[in-house]
């Protein structure tokens, strides 16, 4: 998701007062600061062809944009590039005196609300946040999803529905599967009703379940499954294996271990497979990283697993999928390794994506 990271904040200032404020902020946060040629100071980058053109480039390159400028100017300059809450960067606006910091775009998923509070704290300014859940001092499903590195089916509709139910004071339950129950207290869940067991539900209008499971028991209320991305798939395959075969076998392996496909966080293999069409297509299809490990990295762990001399002679290490999954999941492997049609798949579950 498009959660803002401190190291990828672009700041734009248009006036001498804005430059001075940006210099204050630079002492507290790692910022890439842009301004005009005539206002340029050490540590600042000049606009390219124009202010608007520089913003256009930054919109896709940075996870957060901060403007020291009038809100109207900012609205007009970003308008052509605004897409949706899943992909837009956080956009925050402040006045050059540093009295008000406004969360303008991507408040929850993009992290603009959090960044607004952080900047306001640095400047002792007033944070201006207008999202309904925040105004009502409630948690938001999209913020919880971002903090968990989680996703769900029909994400936009689910978020809209659940957040509206929360601000309407309807009873929305929140159940954490065993893998996540111990860390549930680390997250903002204000407004949700804690549910300890799916077999004994309190009176609810809807239920959000945090789980990796592919299937849950049917309930007589609307159920929204929030799936953290935690499953790592170490993979090996013969050269030029058809993408459809690899995809079908991964789905089979996930199903055999009762994982929701949305739980997939990354796939990994050996360096020799970094240009393997089927694996690249698989990563693109699931929109997950394709992690590459060297022979030396895999060799450090191959003694833990059965090895194939044929694979060793071909690649330089006797096992690929198992040590790759081991490395990605910090040794937390699950199930047995699938070996079919020249494809091997080993799954692991990591604490974080």
UniProtKB/TrEMBL annotation:
Residues 140-215 form the Cobalamin biosynthesis central region domain. Gene3D superfamilies: 3.40.50.11220, CobE/GbiG C-terminal domain (3.30.420.180). Residues 232-347 form the CobE/GbiG C-terminal domain. InterPro entries: CbiG_hydrolase, CbiG_mid, CbiG_N, CobE/GbiG_C, CobE/GbiG_C_sf, GbiG_N_sf. GO terms for biological process: cobalamin biosynthetic process. Signal peptide: none annotated. Residues 54-134 form the Cobalamin synthesis G N-terminal domain. SUPFAM superfamilies: CbiG N-terminal domain-like, CobE/GbiG C-terminal domain-like. It comes from the Bacteria. PANTHER family: COBALT-PRECORRIN-5A HYDROLASE. This is CbiG family cobalamin biosynthesis protein.
